[in-house]
TrEMBL record:
Protein name: DUF3311 domain-containing protein
Source organism phylogeny: Bacteria, Bacillati, Actinomycetota, Actinomycetes, Kitasatosporales
Top-level taxon in the UniProt lineage: Bacteria
Bilayer-spanning residue ranges: 17-37, 49-71
InterPro entries reported for this sequence: DUF3311
The species this protein was found in: Streptomyces alboniger
Keywords, comma-separated and alphabetical: Membrane, Transmembrane, Transmembrane helix
Length: 84
């Protein structure tokens, strides 16, 4: 018998995998420079290189918001589960 306190271990759930994917996707998209290092197609005269990055700024915001809301819901569910 040990006197060490019992510690909850992190659990990998499908929701947490989705959260991780939402947070990792923008990094992968921006670090894979070869996929967007070109001029064509242009959008309203803006080269692809620039508008692709601007679209990812918006997508990153949305994905981070989704990850945050999923994390809040997951934490709320864990607290309610611990009470039961």
């Amino acid at each position: 018998m040990s006197d060490a306190p019992e510690v909850d271990r992190p659990v990998v759930t499908p929701v947490r995998v989705v959260i991780a994917a939402c947070l990792v996707a923008p990094f992968v998209a921006m670090l894979w420079v070869g996929s967007y290092a070109k001029v064509e197609p242009t959008f309203l005269g803006i080269p692809f290189f620039y508008w692709y990055q601007m679209v990812w700024v918006l997508l990153s915001t949305v994905l981070t918001m989704i990850a945050y809301k999923l994390w809040q819901r997951d934490q709320r569910a864990r607290k309610e589960g611990a009470r039961s």
